[in-house]
Amino acid sequence: MSVEPMSYEAQFFGFTPQTCMLRVYIAFQDCLFEVMQAVEQVILKKLEGVPGCEVSPVQIRKCTEKFLGFMKGRFDSLFGKMEQLFLQLVLRIPPHILLPEDKAQETHPCSEEEFQLLQKEIEELQEKYRTEVCAQQALLAELEEQKIVQDKLRQTLALFDELDGVGRDQGASDFRESLALLVQNSRKLQSIRDDVEREGKRLKVS
After folding, report:
1. Is 92 in contact with 6 (CB distance < 8 Å)?
2. What is the pLDDT of residues 53-82, one digit of tens each?
3. Are 196 and 204 in contact (CB under 8 A)?
4. Average pLDDT of the residues in 78-95
5. Residue 203 pLDDT greater than 70, yes or no
6. How far apart are the C-alpha atoms of 50 and 47, rounded to whole Å?
7. 175-205 vs 112-169: helix axis angle to the nearest 10?
8. Does the predicted model carry a pTM greater than 0.85?
C-alpha cells in the first residue's frame, strides 16, 4: 500500500485513497477465500462418488491451501499494479484543479510573504488561546479552593452558633460569656481528669 498522504484527495472524498484501495483489497481477498472454500467442498463431494478413492480430505485441504497461496501471490502482484494506476489516474486530483472551498485562491492569490505573515499570526493566536486556557484553568482551580474555604467557614460559623446556643442554655448572655464558660468547664474537666489519674496511680502503688 502507498504511504503518500494525498491529503487534498482526502479533503475531497472524505477518506484517503489508500483506505479505499485497502477496502477493495480486503474485499477481493475475502472473495478469493470464499471461492476456494466452495471449490474444496465441490471436490470433496465429487470424490465421495468415486469408488475406491484414496484421496483424503486432509490431502484436499493441503492442495487447496497450496493453490490458495499461489492465487494470493498472483493477486497481490496484480493488485499492486492496479493500485498504482488507481492512485495516479483515478483517485488523484490534478495539480491545476481547486476544490470549491479553495476557489478563493484564484481571485485572492496569496504571495509567499503574505502566507508567512498569516502563518505567524495563526501561531500567535494559538499561543494566546493556550494562554487563555491556562488562565481559565487557574481560575477554576482558585474557585475550587474558595469553595473549600467557604465550606470550612460555614462549618466554623455553625460551631460558633452551636457554642452560643450551649452558652444561652447555661445562662450566658453572649458568645464571649459562652466561650468563657466553655473554657471554665474545660478546665474543671481537666482538673477532674488529673485527680482521677493521680488517684489511679496511688491505688496501683498501694
Report:
1. yes
2. 788 888 888 988 999 999 999 999 999 899
3. no
4. 88
5. no
6. 5
7. 70
8. no
